[in-house]
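Reopening this one. Same input as before:
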Amino acid sequence: MAFGDVKSAQGLSELNKYLAERSYISGYVPTQADVQVFAEVGKAPAASLPHALRWYNHIASYSPAERKSWAEGVSPLKAGGKPTTAPAAAKDDDDDDVDLFGSGDEEEDAEAARIRDERLKAYADKKSKKPTLIAKSSVILDVKPWDDETDMKEMEKLVRSIEMDGLLWGASKLVPVGYGINKLQIMSVIEDDKVSVDLLTEKIQDFEDFVQSVDIAAFNKI
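Same output, byte for byte:
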């Protein structure tokens, strides 16, 4: 698939669809194709494009030096109607630009082999020290009361009293649902590996004197 100008609404929409089932632009690891599209996009996409936003934030978490070290990749950006190959990273004296695998010359001497092995080890050590990216999600919950006599302030207080490692409560508001009844709509950010949304909704529903039901209004990867 090739998509057009990612600075346009249509191009960003095509990029969002492209990334719906992909982690990266080309293959299963970040490449120069990601760097090229990242530079073209220029700024974080809107929340209405969750797949493009998730990808953009992930690429932005790497430093420029780390991005420069990535291999080439096939970019779906249109150039004359055809997908283009992302340009190779510029070469300088940075360790990230070392040719890790060499030319494969069968007559390579022992000294050259030793130097290459040392560089491979240094590269592996550097990558092993890179901080692990923590997967997070933005979740908006609709908490519905039993009737119009439910104390909504007390209900929100009870909901916010729930504390879990990896859970952060955000803004909230009351949304009319009819017959004088309001539901509590509350935002949260969770760490995916630590917080189960199902468990969180169960904990809220345990306040059965106040809560009739809990629905997930929105769920987006960050």
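So the earlier flakiness isn't reproducible anymore. For the record, Residues 79-98 have pLDDT under 50 and may be disordered.
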